[in-house]
Amino acid sequence: MDRYCSECGTEMLRQQLGGRERPACPACGHVVWSHFSLGVGGLLVHQGRVLLVQRNIEPNAGLWTLPGGYVETDENLNQTVVREFKEETGLEVRPTGLLAIWQAPDSTSNSSWCVFGVELTHENQALSPDPVEVRQALFLKPTEAAAMEGIGTWSRWMTEHYLPQDFGLRHQDIDAAIQPKLKNPRTALFSVDLSR
Question: 1-33 belongs to which CATH class?
Answer without folding.
Answer: mainly beta
